Amino acid sequence: MAVVRDLRVLLRFRDFRRLLAVRLLSQCADGVYQVALATYVVFSPEKQTSATAIASAMAVLLLPYSLVGPFAGVLLDRWRRRQVFLYGNVLRALLACATAVLMVGGVPDWLFYASALCVTAVNRFVLAGLSAALPRVVDGDRLVIANSLSPTAGTLAATAGGRLAFGVRLLVADSDAAVVLLGAALYLCAALASLRLAVDLLGPERDLVPPRLSAALRGTARGLTAGVRHLTAPERRRAARALGAITLMRFCYGALTVMVLMLCRYAWSDDPDDGLALLGLAVGISGLGFFVAAVVTPAAAGRLGPMRWIVVCSGTAAVVEPALMLPFQEVTALVAAFVLGLVTQGAKIATDTVVQSSVADGFRGRIFSLYDVLFNVAFVAAAGVAALMLPPDGRSVGLVITVAVIYGAISGAMVRFERQ
Questions:
Q1: Is the whole-model pTM more than 0.90?
Q2: Going from the N-terminus, what domains does the chain have, and what CATH number goes with each?
Protein backbone atom coordinates (compact mmCIF):
# COMPACT_ATOMS: atom_id res chain seq x y z
CA MET A 1 0.00 0.00 0.00
CA ALA A 2 1.14 3.55 -0.76
CA VAL A 3 0.53 4.68 2.80
CA VAL A 4 2.82 1.93 4.13
CA ARG A 5 5.52 2.94 1.66
CA ASP A 6 5.17 6.61 2.62
CA LEU A 7 5.32 5.75 6.30
CA ARG A 8 8.50 3.72 5.74
CA VAL A 9 10.09 6.71 4.02
CA LEU A 10 9.19 9.08 6.85
CA LEU A 11 10.30 6.66 9.55
CA ARG A 12 13.81 6.77 8.10
CA PHE A 13 14.04 10.26 9.59
CA ARG A 14 15.16 9.61 13.15
CA ASP A 15 13.89 12.88 14.54
CA PHE A 16 10.53 12.45 12.83
CA ARG A 17 10.18 9.11 14.60
CA ARG A 18 10.91 10.72 17.93
CA LEU A 19 8.53 13.63 17.38
CA LEU A 20 5.87 11.18 16.26
CA ALA A 21 6.30 9.19 19.48
CA VAL A 22 5.69 12.36 21.51
CA ARG A 23 2.57 13.10 19.47
CA LEU A 24 1.16 9.58 19.77
CA LEU A 25 1.63 9.35 23.53
CA SER A 26 0.40 12.89 24.15
CA GLN A 27 -2.73 12.58 22.01
CA CYS A 28 -3.49 9.10 23.33
CA ALA A 29 -3.48 10.65 26.80
CA ASP A 30 -5.77 13.40 25.49
CA GLY A 31 -8.23 10.77 24.29
CA VAL A 32 -8.23 9.02 27.65
CA TYR A 33 -8.67 12.26 29.58
CA GLN A 34 -11.44 13.64 27.33
CA VAL A 35 -13.48 10.45 27.47
CA ALA A 36 -13.13 10.40 31.25
CA LEU A 37 -14.54 13.93 31.35
CA ALA A 38 -17.35 13.06 28.95
CA THR A 39 -18.42 9.99 30.90
CA TYR A 40 -18.30 11.94 34.18
CA VAL A 41 -20.41 14.82 32.79
CA VAL A 42 -22.78 12.98 30.40
CA PHE A 43 -23.05 9.32 31.37
CA SER A 44 -22.94 9.37 35.15
CA PRO A 45 -26.16 7.61 36.27
CA GLU A 46 -26.93 10.32 38.80
CA LYS A 47 -26.77 13.10 36.20
CA GLN A 48 -29.69 13.98 33.92
CA THR A 49 -27.76 15.57 31.09
CA SER A 50 -29.28 17.94 28.53
CA ALA A 51 -27.85 19.45 25.34
CA THR A 52 -27.61 22.74 27.22
CA ALA A 53 -25.50 21.11 29.95
CA ILE A 54 -23.19 19.61 27.32
CA ALA A 55 -22.85 22.99 25.61
CA SER A 56 -22.11 24.65 28.95
CA ALA A 57 -19.42 22.11 29.73
CA MET A 58 -17.81 22.61 26.32
CA ALA A 59 -17.88 26.38 26.78
CA VAL A 60 -16.24 26.12 30.20
CA LEU A 61 -13.54 23.75 28.90
CA LEU A 62 -12.88 25.26 25.47
CA LEU A 63 -13.63 28.98 25.35
CA PRO A 64 -11.33 30.17 28.17
CA TYR A 65 -8.24 28.59 26.66
CA SER A 66 -9.07 30.29 23.39
CA LEU A 67 -7.66 33.27 25.30
CA VAL A 68 -4.52 31.21 25.95
CA GLY A 69 -4.16 30.37 22.26
CA PRO A 70 -2.73 33.70 21.06
CA PHE A 71 -0.24 33.74 23.92
CA ALA A 72 0.69 30.17 23.07
CA GLY A 73 1.48 31.15 19.49
CA VAL A 74 3.69 34.08 20.38
CA LEU A 75 5.48 32.08 23.07
CA LEU A 76 5.96 29.07 20.80
CA ASP A 77 7.81 31.34 18.40
CA ARG A 78 10.18 32.16 21.29
CA TRP A 79 10.35 29.15 23.55
CA ARG A 80 12.25 26.01 22.60
CA ARG A 81 9.51 23.68 21.43
CA ARG A 82 11.20 20.56 22.83
CA GLN A 83 10.98 22.10 26.29
CA VAL A 84 7.31 22.88 25.76
CA PHE A 85 6.68 19.16 25.14
CA LEU A 86 8.69 18.13 28.20
CA TYR A 87 7.36 20.54 30.81
CA GLY A 88 3.88 20.75 29.30
CA ASN A 89 3.29 17.02 29.57
CA VAL A 90 4.71 16.84 33.11
CA LEU A 91 2.38 19.65 34.15
CA ARG A 92 -0.61 17.93 32.52
CA ALA A 93 0.18 14.70 34.37
CA LEU A 94 0.11 16.53 37.70
CA LEU A 95 -3.08 18.42 36.84
CA ALA A 96 -4.81 15.22 35.70
CA CYS A 97 -4.02 13.65 39.07
CA ALA A 98 -5.65 16.67 40.70
CA THR A 99 -8.75 16.14 38.52
CA ALA A 100 -8.98 12.52 39.67
CA VAL A 101 -8.86 13.62 43.31
CA LEU A 102 -11.64 16.14 42.70
CA MET A 103 -13.81 13.49 41.05
CA VAL A 104 -13.52 11.21 44.06
CA GLY A 105 -14.07 14.05 46.49
CA GLY A 106 -17.42 15.09 45.03
CA VAL A 107 -16.47 18.78 44.89
CA PRO A 108 -18.63 21.50 43.28
CA ASP A 109 -18.76 21.40 39.48
CA TRP A 110 -16.96 24.72 39.04
CA LEU A 111 -13.87 23.41 40.82
CA PHE A 112 -13.84 20.26 38.68
CA TYR A 113 -14.16 22.35 35.51
CA ALA A 114 -11.36 24.65 36.66
CA SER A 115 -9.02 21.67 37.00
CA ALA A 116 -10.00 20.30 33.60
CA LEU A 117 -9.57 23.75 32.09
CA CYS A 118 -5.96 23.90 33.27
CA VAL A 119 -5.19 20.58 31.54
CA THR A 120 -6.74 21.68 28.26
CA ALA A 121 -5.02 25.09 28.45
CA VAL A 122 -1.60 23.43 28.51
CA ASN A 123 -2.81 21.22 25.67
CA ARG A 124 -2.91 24.27 23.37
CA PHE A 125 0.83 24.74 23.72
CA VAL A 126 1.61 21.10 23.04
CA LEU A 127 -0.61 20.59 19.99
CA ALA A 128 0.32 23.89 18.34
CA GLY A 129 3.98 23.11 18.99
CA LEU A 130 3.71 19.68 17.37
CA SER A 131 2.35 21.21 14.17
CA ALA A 132 4.86 24.06 14.15
CA ALA A 133 7.79 21.66 14.71
CA LEU A 134 6.94 19.19 11.95
CA PRO A 135 8.77 21.05 9.13
CA ARG A 136 11.94 20.91 11.25
CA VAL A 137 12.17 17.10 11.11
CA VAL A 138 11.28 16.35 7.45
CA ASP A 139 12.35 17.92 4.17
CA GLY A 140 10.09 20.03 1.98
CA ASP A 141 9.43 17.27 -0.54
CA ARG A 142 7.88 15.06 2.14
CA LEU A 143 5.95 17.71 4.03
CA VAL A 144 2.61 16.78 2.42
CA ILE A 145 3.09 13.13 3.35
CA ALA A 146 4.13 14.08 6.86
CA ASN A 147 1.07 16.31 7.22
CA SER A 148 -1.09 13.42 6.09
CA LEU A 149 0.33 10.77 8.36
CA SER A 150 1.56 12.56 11.50
CA PRO A 151 -1.54 14.54 12.58
CA THR A 152 -3.78 11.70 11.46
CA ALA A 153 -1.71 9.25 13.47
CA GLY A 154 -2.18 11.58 16.43
CA THR A 155 -5.93 11.65 15.87
CA LEU A 156 -5.96 7.87 15.68
CA ALA A 157 -3.94 7.74 18.90
CA ALA A 158 -6.52 10.00 20.56
CA THR A 159 -9.24 7.71 19.25
CA ALA A 160 -7.38 4.68 20.56
CA GLY A 161 -6.99 6.44 23.90
CA GLY A 162 -10.72 7.06 23.93
CA ARG A 163 -11.41 3.42 23.19
CA LEU A 164 -8.97 2.41 25.93
CA ALA A 165 -10.79 4.70 28.34
CA PHE A 166 -14.15 3.21 27.38
CA GLY A 167 -12.74 -0.28 27.95
CA VAL A 168 -11.25 0.56 31.33
CA ARG A 169 -14.45 2.31 32.40
CA LEU A 170 -16.77 -0.53 31.34
CA LEU A 171 -14.66 -3.63 31.94
CA VAL A 172 -11.94 -2.93 34.50
CA ALA A 173 -12.85 -0.13 36.90
CA ASP A 174 -16.23 1.57 37.11
CA SER A 175 -14.50 4.80 38.06
CA ASP A 176 -13.88 7.90 35.98
CA ALA A 177 -11.08 8.86 38.38
CA ALA A 178 -9.18 5.66 37.54
CA VAL A 179 -9.43 6.52 33.84
CA VAL A 180 -8.07 10.01 34.49
CA LEU A 181 -5.08 8.52 36.32
CA LEU A 182 -4.39 6.36 33.28
CA GLY A 183 -4.30 9.55 31.20
CA ALA A 184 -1.87 11.10 33.70
CA ALA A 185 0.49 8.14 33.27
CA LEU A 186 0.42 8.54 29.49
CA TYR A 187 1.17 12.28 29.77
CA LEU A 188 4.23 11.40 31.82
CA CYS A 189 5.34 8.89 29.15
CA ALA A 190 5.03 11.63 26.50
CA ALA A 191 7.25 13.89 28.59
CA LEU A 192 9.89 11.17 28.85
CA ALA A 193 9.72 10.53 25.09
CA SER A 194 10.46 14.20 24.36
CA LEU A 195 13.84 13.84 26.08
CA ARG A 196 15.07 11.89 23.04
CA LEU A 197 14.91 15.07 20.93
CA ALA A 198 17.74 17.60 20.97
CA VAL A 199 16.86 20.74 22.91
CA ASP A 200 17.29 23.17 19.99
CA LEU A 201 16.23 20.84 17.18
CA LEU A 202 12.62 21.94 16.87
CA GLY A 203 13.25 25.67 16.79
CA PRO A 204 12.37 28.40 16.56
CA GLU A 205 15.46 30.10 15.12
CA ARG A 206 16.83 32.29 17.87
CA ASP A 207 17.77 35.17 15.56
CA LEU A 208 14.17 35.58 14.35
CA VAL A 209 12.53 36.39 17.69
CA PRO A 210 13.18 38.47 20.83
CA PRO A 211 15.04 36.31 23.36
CA ARG A 212 13.43 37.68 26.53
CA LEU A 213 10.11 36.34 27.81
CA SER A 214 9.08 39.78 29.07
CA ALA A 215 9.60 41.20 25.59
CA ALA A 216 7.56 38.35 24.13
CA LEU A 217 4.65 39.01 26.48
CA ARG A 218 4.74 42.77 25.88
CA GLY A 219 4.73 42.17 22.17
CA THR A 220 1.85 39.68 22.11
CA ALA A 221 -0.62 42.05 20.46
CA ARG A 222 1.93 43.22 17.92
CA GLY A 223 2.95 39.63 17.23
CA LEU A 224 -0.62 38.52 16.62
CA THR A 225 -1.24 41.47 14.34
CA ALA A 226 1.87 40.59 12.39
CA GLY A 227 0.76 36.96 12.19
CA VAL A 228 -2.66 37.90 10.81
CA ARG A 229 -1.04 40.33 8.36
CA HIS A 230 1.35 37.57 7.31
CA LEU A 231 -1.56 35.17 6.75
CA THR A 232 -3.69 37.62 4.74
CA ALA A 233 -0.97 38.71 2.35
CA PRO A 234 -1.94 38.05 -1.31
CA GLU A 235 0.41 35.09 -1.65
CA ARG A 236 -1.18 33.47 1.42
CA ARG A 237 -4.88 34.05 0.76
CA ARG A 238 -5.34 30.41 -0.13
CA ALA A 239 -4.18 29.50 3.39
CA ALA A 240 -6.68 31.95 4.92
CA ARG A 241 -9.50 30.51 2.81
CA ALA A 242 -8.56 26.95 3.73
CA LEU A 243 -8.62 27.94 7.42
CA GLY A 244 -12.08 29.44 6.98
CA ALA A 245 -13.35 26.27 5.32
CA ILE A 246 -12.01 23.87 7.94
CA THR A 247 -13.37 26.09 10.73
CA LEU A 248 -16.89 25.81 9.32
CA MET A 249 -16.45 22.06 8.83
CA ARG A 250 -15.40 21.84 12.48
CA PHE A 251 -18.61 23.67 13.39
CA CYS A 252 -20.64 21.07 11.52
CA TYR A 253 -18.75 18.19 13.11
CA GLY A 254 -19.23 19.70 16.58
CA ALA A 255 -23.00 20.11 16.15
CA LEU A 256 -23.33 16.50 15.01
CA THR A 257 -21.15 15.34 17.92
CA VAL A 258 -23.58 16.84 20.43
CA MET A 259 -26.49 15.26 18.54
CA VAL A 260 -24.87 11.81 18.65
CA LEU A 261 -24.12 12.22 22.38
CA MET A 262 -27.79 12.91 23.08
CA LEU A 263 -28.95 10.08 20.80
CA CYS A 264 -26.64 7.60 22.53
CA ARG A 265 -27.69 8.79 25.98
CA TYR A 266 -31.48 8.90 25.50
CA ALA A 267 -32.79 7.79 22.10
CA TRP A 268 -30.90 4.57 21.45
CA SER A 269 -30.52 3.22 24.99
CA ASP A 270 -32.22 3.39 28.37
CA ASP A 271 -29.08 2.36 30.25
CA PRO A 272 -26.15 4.82 30.60
CA ASP A 273 -23.55 2.04 30.24
CA ASP A 274 -25.15 0.80 27.01
CA GLY A 275 -25.23 4.36 25.71
CA LEU A 276 -21.57 4.79 26.65
CA ALA A 277 -20.65 1.60 24.79
CA LEU A 278 -22.54 2.82 21.72
CA LEU A 279 -20.76 6.15 21.87
CA GLY A 280 -17.45 4.31 22.06
CA LEU A 281 -18.38 2.40 18.91
CA ALA A 282 -19.20 5.66 17.12
CA VAL A 283 -15.86 7.16 18.19
CA GLY A 284 -14.00 4.10 16.92
CA ILE A 285 -15.77 4.14 13.56
CA SER A 286 -15.09 7.85 13.14
CA GLY A 287 -11.45 7.11 13.92
CA LEU A 288 -11.45 4.55 11.12
CA GLY A 289 -12.60 7.36 8.83
CA PHE A 290 -9.59 9.41 9.98
CA PHE A 291 -7.30 6.53 9.05
CA VAL A 292 -8.82 6.15 5.60
CA ALA A 293 -8.38 9.90 5.10
CA ALA A 294 -4.66 9.48 5.76
CA VAL A 295 -4.53 6.75 3.13
CA VAL A 296 -6.43 8.52 0.36
CA THR A 297 -5.60 12.20 0.93
CA PRO A 298 -1.96 12.24 -0.32
CA ALA A 299 -2.96 10.80 -3.69
CA ALA A 300 -6.20 12.79 -3.93
CA ALA A 301 -4.66 16.10 -2.89
CA GLY A 302 -1.69 15.45 -5.14
CA ARG A 303 -3.95 14.83 -8.13
CA LEU A 304 -6.57 17.52 -7.47
CA GLY A 305 -4.61 19.99 -5.36
CA PRO A 306 -5.31 20.60 -1.65
CA MET A 307 -7.97 23.25 -2.26
CA ARG A 308 -9.97 21.11 -4.69
CA TRP A 309 -9.72 18.20 -2.28
CA ILE A 310 -11.40 20.40 0.36
CA VAL A 311 -14.16 21.05 -2.20
CA VAL A 312 -14.64 17.30 -2.68
CA CYS A 313 -14.70 16.64 1.08
CA SER A 314 -17.23 19.36 1.89
CA GLY A 315 -19.39 18.53 -1.13
CA THR A 316 -19.47 14.86 -0.18
CA ALA A 317 -20.53 15.74 3.36
CA ALA A 318 -23.32 18.00 2.05
CA VAL A 319 -24.88 15.05 0.22
CA VAL A 320 -24.13 12.17 2.58
CA GLU A 321 -24.86 13.79 5.96
CA PRO A 322 -28.62 14.35 5.56
CA ALA A 323 -29.11 11.02 3.79
CA LEU A 324 -27.55 9.10 6.68
CA MET A 325 -28.56 11.20 9.70
CA LEU A 326 -32.21 11.95 8.95
CA PRO A 327 -33.41 8.39 9.65
CA PHE A 328 -31.97 8.78 13.19
CA GLN A 329 -31.08 5.10 13.22
CA GLU A 330 -28.01 3.62 14.86
CA VAL A 331 -26.65 1.89 11.74
CA THR A 332 -26.95 4.86 9.40
CA ALA A 333 -25.55 7.21 12.06
CA LEU A 334 -22.50 4.97 12.46
CA VAL A 335 -21.94 5.03 8.70
CA ALA A 336 -22.23 8.81 8.85
CA ALA A 337 -19.60 8.86 11.61
CA PHE A 338 -17.19 7.07 9.29
CA VAL A 339 -17.85 9.31 6.28
CA LEU A 340 -17.71 12.55 8.26
CA GLY A 341 -14.53 11.43 10.00
CA LEU A 342 -12.99 10.78 6.58
CA VAL A 343 -13.98 14.09 4.97
CA THR A 344 -13.23 16.23 8.04
CA GLN A 345 -9.78 14.75 8.51
CA GLY A 346 -9.11 14.83 4.76
CA ALA A 347 -9.90 18.54 4.66
CA LYS A 348 -7.77 19.14 7.75
CA ILE A 349 -4.76 17.40 6.22
CA ALA A 350 -5.11 19.57 3.12
CA THR A 351 -5.47 22.71 5.26
CA ASP A 352 -2.40 21.86 7.36
CA THR A 353 -0.37 21.43 4.18
CA VAL A 354 -1.54 24.72 2.67
CA VAL A 355 -0.83 26.63 5.89
CA GLN A 356 2.57 25.07 6.56
CA SER A 357 3.77 25.55 3.00
CA SER A 358 2.65 29.21 2.99
CA VAL A 359 3.73 30.41 6.44
CA ALA A 360 7.31 31.29 7.38
CA ASP A 361 8.88 29.40 10.27
CA GLY A 362 8.98 32.47 12.51
CA PHE A 363 5.18 32.76 12.24
CA ARG A 364 4.08 29.13 12.37
CA GLY A 365 3.59 28.97 16.12
CA ARG A 366 1.18 31.91 16.29
CA ILE A 367 -0.67 30.88 13.09
CA PHE A 368 -1.26 27.36 14.38
CA SER A 369 -2.35 28.74 17.73
CA LEU A 370 -4.89 30.93 15.94
CA TYR A 371 -5.86 27.80 14.03
CA ASP A 372 -6.57 26.09 17.37
CA VAL A 373 -8.59 29.09 18.59
CA LEU A 374 -10.77 28.93 15.47
CA PHE A 375 -11.29 25.20 16.07
CA ASN A 376 -12.30 25.70 19.69
CA VAL A 377 -14.63 28.62 19.07
CA ALA A 378 -16.29 26.77 16.18
CA PHE A 379 -16.87 23.68 18.33
CA VAL A 380 -18.32 25.65 21.23
CA ALA A 381 -20.52 27.69 18.89
CA ALA A 382 -21.75 24.43 17.36
CA ALA A 383 -22.60 23.07 20.81
CA GLY A 384 -24.52 26.24 21.59
CA VAL A 385 -26.52 26.05 18.37
CA ALA A 386 -27.20 22.36 18.97
CA ALA A 387 -28.42 23.14 22.50
CA LEU A 388 -30.97 25.57 21.04
CA MET A 389 -32.16 23.19 18.32
CA LEU A 390 -32.01 19.72 19.88
CA PRO A 391 -35.00 18.19 21.67
CA PRO A 392 -34.36 16.05 24.78
CA ASP A 393 -33.89 12.83 22.78
CA GLY A 394 -31.48 14.41 20.24
CA ARG A 395 -33.62 14.03 17.09
CA SER A 396 -33.62 17.33 15.16
CA VAL A 397 -34.39 17.49 11.45
CA GLY A 398 -33.64 21.21 11.48
CA LEU A 399 -30.10 20.71 12.77
CA VAL A 400 -29.34 18.02 10.20
CA ILE A 401 -30.54 20.23 7.34
CA THR A 402 -28.66 23.27 8.68
CA VAL A 403 -25.40 21.32 8.79
CA ALA A 404 -25.94 20.04 5.24
CA VAL A 405 -26.51 23.60 3.97
CA ILE A 406 -23.27 24.77 5.62
CA TYR A 407 -21.32 21.93 4.03
CA GLY A 408 -22.78 22.86 0.64
CA ALA A 409 -21.94 26.53 1.15
CA ILE A 410 -18.32 25.64 1.95
CA SER A 411 -17.99 23.61 -1.22
CA GLY A 412 -19.57 26.31 -3.38
CA ALA A 413 -17.42 29.09 -1.91
CA MET A 414 -14.21 27.11 -2.39
CA VAL A 415 -15.12 26.43 -6.03
CA ARG A 416 -15.64 30.14 -6.58
CA PHE A 417 -12.33 31.00 -4.91
CA GLU A 418 -10.46 28.52 -7.09
CA ARG A 419 -12.01 29.93 -10.24
CA GLN A 420 -10.91 33.40 -9.22
A1: no
A2: 2-419 (1.20.1250.20)
